[in-house]
Amino acid sequence: MRLENLKKRKHKIDRLALLRSIRDLGSISSAARALGISYKAAWGAVEEVNNLSFMPLVERNVGGEKGGGTTLTEHGSTILDFMETVDAAFQGFLEDLGHRDGTGKELGLYMSFLKLKTSARNQFGGKVVEVVKGVVTSEVRLDIGNGDQVVASITNKSVENLELHSGSEAFALIKASHVIVTTDNQIKTSARNRFTGTVSHCELGAVNGEVAITLPGGKSVVAVITNESIKNLDLKIGDQATAIFKASQVILATV
């Protein structure tokens, strides 16, 4: 594939720039405008970085002298400072490499395409706390921070290929269409994964709608359910709801 075609296909939000804008402007809407992206896209990126981090990087503040806003957490500020230092050093490396043989710029572009990309709306980074092997499949528990764990059921061969063991790092991927939403926290189900939080986003579509449930620790679970289900559940921002998905619907990945 030609380099020009790769550039045309490249479409992603610069998360480092987004975090920097949130830090400097103190508002997700102002940061979105500064980067020329939609408010929805900005919040989607914020949800992703919070989910992939062991601790939330961004938090929403309600009220206060300025009427609230969006700021980096202490952990987020530390991570951003570190990322800026690493990014500056990396750019310097590419410039030096480019001066030597002219490949630095192209190398940087190709490296960005080698990063993990997936259509799964829910992505959580964490550490494996337990692997229970069966005859054919294994149950893997992934600690994603703040006391939350994702349970995955994958084949023993996958456990070996991914080199999963207690203490290893991995990503859990769950498609939004696999997430069930309920307002009855007492409902009984065989699904191993249950996350209760507050509805932070609820948007109707042509047939299906998108619902985001923010957990007490700051991470979010996104579900795509029918408009009829949203209306039947009478879902509104601020309501308590529970996201449920089966262990067999969790994909684990390592890098």
Number of domains: 3
Shape-level CATH architecture of the largest domain: Orthogonal Bundle
User: What is the terminal-to-terminal distance?
Assistant: 24 Å
Morphology: globular
Measured by DSSP, the beta-strand proportion falls in 25-35%
What's the CATH topology label of the largest domain?
Arc Repressor Mutant, subunit A
Mean pLDDT: 84
CATH superfamily of the largest domain: Winged helix-like DNA-binding domain superfamily/Winged helix DNA-binding domain
Total beta strands: 12
Order of helices and strands: HHHHEEHHEEEHEEEEEHEE
Order of strands across the main sheet = 5-4-3-6-12
**What's the CATH class of the largest domain, please?**
Mainly Alpha
Fraction of residues in helix: 25-40%
Describe the secondary-structure layout.
Elements: H1 3-9, H2 15-25, H3 28-35, H4 39-52, E1 58-62, E2 68-72, H5 74-101, H6 104-113, E3 122-133, E4 137-145, E5 148-155, H7 156-162, E6 169-174, E7 180-182, E8 193-203, E9 208-214, E10 220-226, H8 227-233, E11 240-245, E12 251-253
Antiparallel strand pairs: 1-2, 3-4, 3-6, 4-5, 6-12, 7-11, 8-9, 8-11, 9-10
Helix pairs in contact: 2-3, 2-5, 3-4, 5-6
